[in-house]
Amino acid sequence: xxxxxxxxxxxxxxxxxxxxxxxxxxxxxxxxxxxxxxxxxxxxxxxxxxxxxxxxxxxxxxxxxxxxxxxxxxxxxxxxxxxxxxxxxxxxxxxxxxxxxxxxxxxxxxxxxxxxxxxxxxxxxxxxxxxxxxxxxxxxxxxxxxxxxxxxxxxxxxxxxxxxxxxxxxxxxxxxxxxxxxxxxxxxxxxxxxxxxxxxxxxxxxxxxxxxxxxxxxxxxxxxxxxxxxxxxxxxxxxxxxxxxxxxxxxxxxxxxxxxxxxxxxxxxxxxxxxxxxxxxxxxxxxxxxxxxxxxxxxxxxxxxxxxxxxxxxxxxxxxxxxxxxxxxxxxxxxxxxxxxxxxxxxxxxxxxxxxxxxxxxx
Length: 363
What we know:
- It is a multi-pass membrane protein.
- By secondary structure, the protein is an all-alpha fold.
- It has 13 helices and no strands.
- It has helices at about 5-35, 45-55, 55-75, 80-115, 130-140, 145-160, 165-180, 190-215, 215-235, 245-265, 270-280, 280-305, 310-340.
- It is globular, with a radius of gyration of 21 Å.
């Protein structure tokens, strides 16, 4: 594989890891942890899965936004508004609003008509809104599962407007991040958007420089040492999810993905699959919520009703392998649904209508 292609592939690898971690997080929180309330035997593996999900929080979304900022740099710094407004901002806002509506309708149907007994999910999320007014409020406040799309559109517009004052923008992003870590920003939607802006801004304005620093051995060691020291300092101040912890996690993840793509055979099946997933994160991101809901409500509800967890072997297998198996199933299911829908008029589910090309339905 050419060197230029390998440079792109590590980005796809990191994006692939991030989207799978997002799916895993929703599996853990919506069905795995609730299942523990009906399983009498808890094992070490239970703590391992919950711990993995907890300790990867500083990496999951910060890495996603850093890479998104890095990829958006050309549109922010080089291209005109006419070239990028529809393709970037309008398209992202369109997809956000569309999938908020789709998820609300589908999740409401699942919880109303497919639930067993009282085994349902509820959350401060647009997908669980009890009225149109509450739905609009949650959507406006980014309190919805596709909030990442809302944030991307907002960050892109802000970076485009402030591109000549990017140092101030980075400072503002850092202040907002600290405010969120300290719990000063109310509601999880606004807090998520405010907390992660710094990573997109950094990726957009400094991303290429950071990647270059990581490529040089001396600069790499200096950067990692500095971030480690700052992360430990904040940890001692009980800020274990600080800006610097996330920055360190992102840098280590970049180095790992670069190493894997340098040393693994480029045609390796697992790596090729991961990189393909990284190129196609959108469809997994917007569709996996529906699949995790099906697993958390009708599937888990049926297992509880029919006492499947009374079987010791089944419970042990569930505790050990369910998060991994369910993550793989959700990712594969989302890709399959996208493949079926992404043709004809269905393509407007994944792209703003004016951007849909007639000559190619699938990529």
